[in-house]
Specification:
transferase (chains A, B), alpha/beta, about 40% helix, L-aspartate:2-oxoglutarate aminotransferase activity (chains A, B), 8-stranded mixed sheet, PyrdxlP-dep_Trfase_major (chains A, B), PyrdxlP-dep_Trfase (chains A, B), about 15% strand, homodimer, 13 helices, 13 strands, about 425 residues, 3-stranded antiparallel sheet
Chain lengths: ~425, ~425
Amino acid sequence: MADYRTLSHQQLEQLRRELVDRYEQFQQQGLKLDMSRGKPAADQFDLVSGLLDAVNSQSSLLAADGVDCRNYGDFTGIPECKAIFCEMLGVSFDEIFICGNSSLAVMYDALGKMMLHGVRPGAKPWCREGNLKFLCPVPGYDRHFAITERYGFEMIPIEMTPEGPDMDQVERLVAADSSIKGIWCVPKYSNPQGITYSDETVRRLARMKTAADDFIIMWDNAYAVHDLYPEHRDHLLNILAECKAAGDPDRVMMFASTSKISYAGAGIAVFACSKGMMERMKKLLTIQTIGFDKINMLRHARYFKNLDGIMAHMDRQAELLRPKFRTVLDAFERELAGKGVAEWLNPNGGYFISLDVMDGCAKRVVQLCKDAGVTLTSAGATFPYGRDPRDRNIRVAPTYPTIPELEQAVALLCICVQLAAVEKLLRD
Amino acid sequence: MADYRTLSHQQLEQLRRELVDRYEQFQQQGLKLDMSRGKPAADQFDLVSGLLDAVNSQSSLLAADGVDCRNYGDFTGIPECKAIFCEMLGVSFDEIFICGNSSLAVMYDALGKMMLHGVRPGAKPWCREGNLKFLCPVPGYDRHFAITERYGFEMIPIEMTPEGPDMDQVERLVAADSSIKGIWCVPKYSNPQGITYSDETVRRLARMKTAADDFIIMWDNAYAVHDLYPEHRDHLLNILAECKAAGDPDRVMMFASTSKISYAGAGIAVFACSKGMMERMKKLLTIQTIGFDKINMLRHARYFKNLDGIMAHMDRQAELLRPKFRTVLDAFERELAGKGVAEWLNPNGGYFISLDVMDGCAKRVVQLCKDAGVTLTSAGATFPYGRDPRDRNIRVAPTYPTIPELEQAVALLCICVQLAAVEKLLRD
């Protein structure tokens, strides 16, 4: 099929009629499918059902260090659980803290502490400064942007490249403006594009000169072990090690969780940072809580045992997710390639596929899908303030639907992408 | 035995020698006992071991409304868990929110939201106001005071009476000073005295005129069902109902948890408030997290079933705690009564016994105990900034030690209380 941009008005009109026909057939099917969030499917959870038996009334409830997990104690987490995440993130025992079920809550809380108390050793509370800015690589994770918006930051979009955020732009901005306090990063299998930051990008983030002496990299390593292809695991450089090497160990706060490993609602979240910053965080966290849920930590540690246990589980999970990603990507390739109406990446892991439709068409595509019963993530959601300046990015979340549902949904999506493009070409 | 304050110098010297002898015998025993915190004992946890079997790999993981507890969803908590806390706190389904494992963290977070965003509908963020004050009934809970201290509040101590905080003082202060933003309350079996607020106190809190239009009552109902004597359960008026009746439903935020019901480290915490404030909190919490641990909610709901299930369990727990409380109180009665050296209350529930020693002696008593191997809560800890102006209050936490340990510890404590008093009388 030819590039739609080369077609005549008459050809486009013909095409529009065909697409509308096919679209109306979908409308008549009465689909009802929600693909708006990156939700795991039930079969993923079934893979870890043994987690619920890992601790029962007959189990010892003592952690490896003898602490009774039913009681207060082990403020920073139980040692066997810390060991797993230390291995996952490449940090040491005194650089990690095991929290509750939500890494988002940990990030919200960490930024809240920066706002009210200052977290980097010696840093002042940001809430006393008038003008606060945060760098937001785009497309990115809407819930990150919602946090910095809520705290009152002006959010500056940074273009993503195949190697991560556009570092020329980042370096120029942070060197010049001390009101830029940090950057959001999903460094491995980024949400939504599935891009893994190159070594060069990680090193430049660690080494760049920042006008703010309390600049923080919010390193949300949400998909650290979420490879789709065991034979091709993306490699991510250890940014904490790089920050130490660059002489600024307090520049980064790392986050991870098992929300997309064990249970989306009942997993374990962690943060990691330099020892200096950890001392500060511990002092602040002591005010806040007597400790997090150690029985759930114990459950996870006894079930997965170690990072190998997690990797083996993730490979089984990948077997469920690969066909779903393939269903979407094959349809894109079959229906959209060469037509000049869309671009996408083929991620090696993560939870999403990012689809760039023709400029000015994303909202129309999402609306068309919705009107035929398929709810996608809102157009613009992957940008600060929900504003995609080119109105082209759509986040596709393939994990939750079944493959037959996904086939229908993506077939509809491909029609809508083409229809919106043709409508636009006819208008122009 | 006569009141020590009536003894001659010679009699006091004689008494001091006897007490020092007995104290030194204790020192030689090499005791090593930590009674500094209100920790549950392992036998309390053993009572609820079935909780760990309430959900296993064979269980349905669907909540009563069909939501899969392993996945995202049911943002405010699963219905069967909400039902239990609604009954416990006397609130409706849309007035309650089920959170993670720590009510302290929920309180810290709620005040953090008041600082940064404002929580009462229409309220401004407090961090923009220069001068913030908070009322702190004393003696009280050190971790409450640590939170308001951390947020930069000036803390104003309010004397406790047998009916709760001195309401004459409270009413006078809040009417006159708009920088007083709230009050900490542990309204039932208060920490550490075990006092339950009278109906009159609750009503006056709900009705009093406050100069601040965003005044908040932090109602930490930590011991809502923690009766020691099933035949005598203290009654607490529903303050949310009273605030509604008084025309200011947004004045109170209620908190509770199962930390002293199921597991100190792995229970469930909740907050409750008016519908108007809940709408505001939900909007703010949506930024922060996709949801709390629903599998732990399910575990608790399936195990306890309803409030009756919790009450039956708490009566069994009371059987373990009553002899511990009695051990302490009987020793106080036997060793300290009538000597003019100490006063205490006999609580009907809760987790602590509050001991007022002779003015100026609390630090000395705690130090003497420590030097003989028994660590008590630091003297002054029950007051803002750790400063007990009369240096007399000691919080005794009888739950964690065994009864033989407790007998030893309290025998030592009674000697130290008398010794410190005699030392003081000899100095004066």
